Amino acid sequence: MNSELQEATATFQEVDFRSELKSRPSRPPNYEAEHRALALLAKEMAENPRNMLQKVVEMAVELCAADTAGISILEGDVFRWESLAGVLAPYLNNTMPRDASPCGVCVDQNATQLMHLADRCFPALSVEPRAVEALLVPFQHHGKPVGTVWIVAHSDQRKFDREDERIVRTLSGFASAGWQLWKAYRTEAESSRKKDEFLAMLGHELRNPLAAIVSANDVMQNVGIQEPKAVRAMNVVARQSKHLGRMVDDLIDLTRIRHGKLKLQRERVELRVALDQVLETTRDQIEGRQHRLSVSVPPEPIILNADPVRLAQMLANLLDNAAKYTPAGGEISIAAERRDDQVFISVRDNGVGIPADQVDKIFDLFTQLNASHAAASRGLGMGLSLVRNLAELHGGSVDVVSAGPDQGSLFTIGLPLLPMPSLTDVTKKPVEESVASSDRHRILVVEDDDDVAESMGALLAIDGHTVRTASDGAVALDMVRLFEPDVVLLDLGLPGLDGYQVARRIRMGPLKKNIVIIALSGYGEGEHRRRSKEAGCDSHLVKPIQPDVLRKLLASTWKYDQGNLILPMPGNKANA
After folding, report:
1. 3-class DSSP string for 149-201
2. Full strand arrangement of the beta sheet holding 487-491
3. Domain of residue 410, residue span
4. What is the CATH number of the domain that holds 84?
């Protein structure tokens, strides 16, 4: 198209050839070719709606023996050539002002147009080869024209007739459907993207205040407060903080799964050991509601190739769900059964049950039962969706059976087992007990959130450590020189000089071999862990930091071997 401003050399009446459509003889229809083309369009709409409009113009060239065919979409005050086939295909996505385009006339009149040498009236249409004849048909959305389907002949040898108009009008219906389908898809995709970004941001933003609450409550529990009401209040804060922490973790994990960023850290896991750990963490909730819990696991080892953290997450969510929807004094059971090369883990309760019309939706994100049970209002409806996603990542599945309201529920996870030959050298690993630290360290806490820094510092001081705090990177580097800490708890999200830069500068300094740097972050994905390791951090903890996890890390014995730090401790998976 010619982008230079040119003068029109003819009026619209002089290029308007619509009257000839009535007088020109029509060629006979080729219904066989037309039906074949329409069948292809219907298939394209079902399988690849993004390519629908392009397929429409390709069919227009074929069925009308046109030199070029296109679809122009009205976007504000311009038309964009959304799809092109034939001679003018290189002009794809070019735009033309509405009042300088034949498409503007077609849309304004909402009627078929036939024009001869239209560039005489619309100079912006000047192209090579020249458009000799153009047939345009509008298409609508809710009765309002939003674009045109058009065909062009670049020589006097091809003249369009009423059969061509009929075909293009038929194709315009497909263009309208395809445009609406793609627009809806783009709108949904954009909405989904914004929702995922918001949820990820919300999850990470919640971690800092949650970290401060957890640390402050742990401080109060360790200063010897004995007043019964205060003790009960602190226990409530501790329980609810753990509950909120699990929700935050679930929220972040779901967004990572949706973006394909959650990677399983598989290893050999014995089901009984994993289950014992889960029962320990969920005991308070089950005993608090006086549920009767029974456990049935085969005596022989059941070994899975699984991510132990994610396996525990699945089981904990199912038990949490059962406790939430089972009235006080109710019964909950968990059982495992080996069937061929799979293990099926079932959680049964005699609670409120699931109505038949909600069974198929129960694993959808943010879905909750319409139950009157008071505890049902807690949570965000993420737990079961996460269970399904994690089970599928493990190559397994989850399903649910319920006889209806007040009839209880049975959730079953099926997971693949390790092949039997690999069981010979596997021994049961005991559950690690919390290690009480006898070591005392000089610890620098680098955190720009004052509440987090103060509560974490107080907690460490109660444990006998010497603590200093810094609120930004520059101050932290000065404190490293003056205070000479042997441990730095380093927030990676510092303003200005961020944690990665601080870690690198510490490693470049004279004390680089004598300091253990533990990264603190709201992000626990593999990319963030890799970056913190490359910056010189020795370990990576994800907020909110659980006090027992931090104590265990600080209590571990570390040493340097030829300048390389050796940490005989797990990679903080439980806090990932």
Report:
1. EEEEECCCCCCCCHHHHHHHHHHHHHHHHHHHHHHHHHHHHHHHHHHHHHHHH
2. 466-470, 442-446, 487-491, 516-521, 539-542
3. 267-423
4. 3.30.450.40
With vertex at residue 203, the alpha carbon angle to CA 488 and CA 243, rounded to the nearest 5 degrees, is 90
The residue from 368, 395, 423 where one domain ends is: 423
DSSP SS3 for 85:
strand
Assess contact for 548 and 432: CB atoms under 8 A: no
User: 């004598």: which residue's tokens?
Assistant: 514
- Burial grade of 94 (CB within 10 A; 0-12, 13-18, 19 or more): middle
Predicted confidence (pLDDT) per residue in 42-90, tens digit: 888 777 777 889 999 999 999 999 999 999 999 999 999 999 999 999 9
Would the pTM count as exceeding 0.85?
no
Q: CB within 8 A of 226, min separation 6: which ones? A: none
Q: How far apart are CA 548 and CA 99, in angstroms?
A: 70
| 92-139: pLDDT as tens digits | 999 999 999 999 999 999 999 999 999 999 998 888 899 999 999 999
Element spanning 140, H or E = strand 133-141
Residue among 244, 201, 219, 246 at smallest CA distance from 459: 219
Single-letter code of the amino acid located at 87: V
